[in-house]
Each structure stands twice: as C-alpha cells, then as structure tokens.
Design brief:
alpha/beta
Length: about 525
Amino acid sequence: EKFAMTETVKIFDTTLRDGEQSPGCTMNLKEKLQVARQLEKLNADIIEAGFAASSKGDFTSIEEISKIVTNATVAGLSRLVENDIDLSFDALKNAQNPRLHLFIATSPIHMRYKLKMSPDEVLSSIENSVKYAKTKFSDIEFSAEDATRSEFDFLIRALNTAIKAGATTINIPDTVGYSTPLEFSAFISKILENLVSPEKITLSVHCHNDLGLATANSLAAVKSGARQVECTINGIGERAGNAAMEEIVMALNVRNNFYNAKTGINTQFIVPSSRTVSAVTGSVVQPNKAIVGKNAFLHEAGIHQHGVMENKATYEIMTPEEVGYKEQQLILGKHSGRHAFENWLTENNHVVTKEEEKELFKKFKQLCDKKKTITERDLEALVQNKISVGEEKYKLKRFVINVGNTITSTAVLTVSAGGKDVEDVAIGDGPVDASFKAIEKIAGVTPELDDYNIRSITQGVDSLGEALVRLKYNGRYFKGRGLSTDVIEASIFAYIDAVNKLEAVISKEGTENEN
C-alpha cells in the first residue's frame, strides 16, 4: 500500500465562494456568517470566504467572516494582479490564519481566448504575482485553472514556477468537469512525480460535477496522494455544482480501510449544515441525495426493512446519527419558558441577538398554539427562517382569500409599507397567484417568478410548511422564504421576503448612483 498509515486530508470548503455562484444561490452577509459558523462547527480546515476584488459585498463578507472564524484558515480568491492581492490582504487583515488563493488559466483554449496571453506571459505572471504575494502572505495556494485540459509539460512548468516563488498549496482544478476517475488518478500521480519539491507543498484538487463525477474524481485523487479536497456543502456550485463535502467526508470515513485517509470533520454537524445551506440558498436538496437527502436512510423494500430490523449493518454502511440526523422527539412545548428556549438556542450553537431571541420566542409560542408537538426540526426552521429573512420594508398584516373551483380566485392583502398600512386586491389563477399579484401591486414591481416550491418541515397535517420563492428582476435573482402551518400564508411571507430583498438592492444601488 502506498500510504500504509492513515493520512489526513484537508477539507477546503468553498460553499461561500464557488457554491454561491449557483444561479439564484446568492447569500446576504447575515446568511454567509451563519454558514461560516456552521463550517467552524464542522471543523472545516479552510473556508473560502469570497473574491475581494469582485465586489464591495464580497470584500465585506471576507472581512466579517475573518472576525468570527477562530480555528479554520480563511481564504480569499485573487487573480494574478497586484490590486487583487492588495484587496485580499486588506479584507483578510482580521483573520487568525489568512490564505491567499491565486489562480490563472493554463489550458491553450483559456490562455488564447480568455486571457489573450502567451504561455511565457502566463509563466512570468505566475512568478511575479506569487513573489509579490509572498511579501504579504505566508500561506499561498496556487490554482491552475482548467488544468485537466492543459498541455502537461506546460502545466508542470507553471506549477513549479509557483512552488519556487513561494506557493504552499498547489491546486489542480477540473474546471469544466471533464475528467474521469482512472484518468484523474493517473494525472495526479504524474503531477506529483514531476513537481520540484512535492514534500514541501500540499497537493489539492477542485472537481466540478458536469458528468456527475466530482466526488469520484476527488476520491481517486486522494488515492493518488492529493491531501486537500475542495468542495461545497450539498455539492452546490455553478452549472452542475462542485464535489459534495458530505460525500467525500463519509466516503473516507466508511472506506478508511481502502483510502488510508481521513478528514477532521465533525460528522454529526453534516445534516444541520446541509439544512442551513439549503435554507439560506433556497436550494432544495433532492430526496435521493447521498448522505443528506431525505431518503438517504429510508428502507422501503420489504426485504430491506426485515434485514435492517434484524441487523442494521445489512443495508446501512453508516448510521443516521453519525451524520447528525436526530429522532423527531418533542423537545419543548407550550408550557416551556423563556429560559428553556434560551438553553436550546445555546446548546445548538445558534447565535442570535437579544432582540432576535425575543422575536423567536414569540414565534415559538405562536407555533405552540397551532401545533400539538414541537420538534427539533420546527425550532431549527424558525431560527433558519429568521436568518434568511431580509430587511423588512413590507410586512404582512392580514389577508383574505376567496377561492373555489367554479370562481376566480381573489386575494385582499393588507401590508405595512414603511410603517403605513396599504390594502390592495387582485385576481389570479388560484390563491397563490392572486396573492402574489396583490403584493406586486402594493410594491409597484413586476418581477418574474423564476421558482416556487412548498415542502413540509415535519410529518403530520399540522406540520410547518416552508415556501421558497425565487424572483428574477433585471437579470438578478432574489430568493424569499416563508414559514407557517398554513401554506398560503407561508407563500405570501416568502414572496414578501423576496420583494423586500429586491427593494433593498434597488434602493441601495439608487443611493450609490446618486453619490
């Protein structure tokens, strides 16, 4: 065996940078901080917080995440441009363990058509930028974008140039998800054989999922000696997404005997982290998704059920508890006091302000009046909803819906708009359509409804319903989330939330333009 001892593989989580690039998955600062806290609980080694030069918002996110992350390394992405490096340095000034992540494309197609640079220009840019970065950072990662479609000899020259100039991590991205496991495994081995001093650096991989092979390719690379894997929670990311953190971590856990490699991830935080990311991005996890899907531990077939009852190992290679599934037990009820509620928040590491706690407790008491049993998932949903709801210019006061299969649906909504009550009525194709049209009339905007879905949080007819709405306006996406035991009310809350986020961006950009 090449690595007889169990070696450690670092987890570089890019949910907040590459993951956020999924269409419609943008997060506001409050949401990003919540995900960063969750990644700390998971014990991720490196958290990529953003790309400082890309926007003011990204710069601020990196700055604020750096303040709250104490254990993990915080990384900022940067092009090989001095201004980018300076901005990353400023954004990461509060980080306990900062890392600069430099990247440039090395494939002929990218160098010619995107960079419009010759191979020699790319090499001198790598050398100059890494040397310059070394005056500000000791921890530097270099990525050769589109490495799997690069000419091998040139790729090695680029990587060795970066190592000699001071890079400490070398990352091999399969940028367009083109590679396959056997091929990628051989590719990584060949790279390690040709690096100037492989023992001085950590070799990393960053795989995309265009052919559904991101996890398989990442694991094949680990078998060949890669010691850092770049991934995202739930595998979110642009196009078909990135390698899913939970799949890589659990594959190395369950098949440790084969890989002789492990990660330092606290696996019991996998499911809570998956739910947090799903809530803040509005991106629903498919039921049959490995590890974190709703059906991942359900056994439908009779012969499977019988086997599992006799001995769980018959069809379970890991336990639900290992990855953080909890039994849906009653944990708090209508007679629970403020103190018990505060304790639950503390025990579950939910960071909220005194004001938010007061509001959450009020919502919890309202839920107790509507629902017989309150479960862990209900409380989680309340907290996550609080985090992902934006600034509230519009607030629902009351609504009346008239609906039936032989009449046209009408919705009368009263909404508080900047402290003043506004009422309007609209007709529509069903109660949800009518409600959304009434909100549009009140707000004076007509966005395109890009996505809308409803799901129940727990079992039972009195379950909390969660509505997710995604609006498209001027080429940008705005997501909203609503929670209620009444799905129509949840839908109205979600639509108003999305419109509030849309309004906040419009008014902010308006004032920026005036300045």
